[in-house]
Amino acid sequence: MAVHAHPDDESSKGAATYAHYTSLGAEVLVVSCTGGERGSILNSALADSAMAERDLPGLRRLEMRQAQQHLGVQHRWLGFEDSGMNDDGSVPASSFAGIPIEYETEPLVNIIREFRPQVLVTYDEKGGYPHPDHIRCHEVSLAAYRAAADPDRFPDSGEPWQIDKLYYDRIFNLERVDAMYLKLSVAEPDSPLLEPLGAAREWMKDYPKLATTHVPVGEFLEARDAALLSHASQVSPESSFFFWPNDLVRKAWPFEDFQLIESKVETVMPESDLFAGVEITT
C-alpha cells in the first residue's frame, strides 16, 4: 500500500515498483490523500485544456483512473482538499494540511484495516519536497500506521491490523545519478546529457545514502512512463521525468529505491524486495 499526496505523485514516486509487484500477483493499493484541486496546468500542450480550465479536479480524476489502469493497481481517494502551495506558507483552513490530523487519520486507518497490507510506503518527514500536503501525507501515514494496530484507537474502523514493514520513498538519490553519469561517460563521452547529469551530481553531492532496498524494475519503466503521461495536465512529454533514456536506466540503475524505517519481521540488508521477511499466506 502506497500513500501519496496528490494524483500524479504515485506515477513519479514508485510507479515501476507497483507495476512490478502487480505483475507478480500482489495486490497493490494506492491512496491519494487529495484530488489535486489547487494544482496548476503544467502542460502547455494539453489536449483537454478546455476541460482543465472548466473542471481541473474532474480532469485529474480521469487522469488518475488512466494511470491506475497502466499500473494495474487498486486506488482509493482519502477525500481531502489540496492545500496548494502559497509563498507565505499559509494553507486554507478546510484543506488537507489545515485540518486537525486526527480527523484525517481515521479514514486512512479504516482503509488499512480493510485492505490489510503487509507493506506501507510513504514520504519522509520533509515530504520529498516541502509541499504542505506532502508533509501532512507523511504525518497522517505514520499516525495511521501506528493507530491501525492499536485496538483502542478508532474501534469502529474495523479489526486492528499490524503492517509488517514501513518504507520511505528514496527514488531520487545520488547513487542513481552517479551510476547513470558513469555509465554514460564511458559509453557516450560526447553525450549532451552528461552536462545536466553532472550538474545534478553536484547539486546532490551532500545527499546522504539512505536507501536500504533496491527493487529491480527495468521491465516496468515504460509502464511508469505511460502512467506519468496519463497525468497530462501535470506532466508534459518534454518533462524532466523523461530526461534519462530508459535504456540507460536499465543498464546503469534499473531500480527504484526505498528506505526501511520500521520492520516487525526479520530481514537482511540490503534488500531487493519490499516483502523480504514477510510471511505470505494464501
From TrEMBL:
GO molecular function (one): hydrolase activity, acting on carbon-nitrogen (but not peptide) bonds, in linear amides
Keyword annotations: Hydrolase, Metal-binding, Zinc
Binding site for Zn(2+): H6, D9, H134
Enzyme class: hydrolase
SUPFAM superfamilies per the UniProt record, alphabetical: LmbE-like (SSF102588)
E.C. code: 3.5.1.115
One record GO biological process: mycothiol-dependent detoxification
Keyword match Nucleotidyltransferase: no
Entry cofactors: Zn(2+)
Pfam families with a match to the protein in the record: PIG-L
Reactions performed catalytically: mycothiol S-conjugate + H2O = an N-acetyl-L-cysteine-S-conjugate + 1D-myo-inositol 2-amino-2-deoxy-alpha-D-glucopyranoside
PANTHER family: N-ACETYLGLUCOSAMINYL-PHOSPHATIDYLINOSITOL DE-N-ACETYLASE, N-ACETYLGLUCOSAMINYL-PHOSPHATIDYLINOSITOL DE-N-ACETYLASE-RELATED
Oligomeric form and interacting partners: Monomer.
Family note: Belongs to the MshB deacetylase family. Mca subfamily.
Function as written in the Swiss-Prot or TrEMBL entry: A mycothiol (MSH, N-acetylcysteinyl-glucosaminyl-inositol) S-conjugate amidase, it recycles conjugated MSH to the N-acetyl cysteine conjugate (AcCys S-conjugate, a mercapturic acid) and the MSH precursor. Involved in MSH-dependent detoxification of a number of alkylating agents and antibiotics.
Name of this protein: Mycothiol S-conjugate amidase
Lineage: Bacteria, Bacillati, Actinomycetota, Actinomycetes, Micrococcales
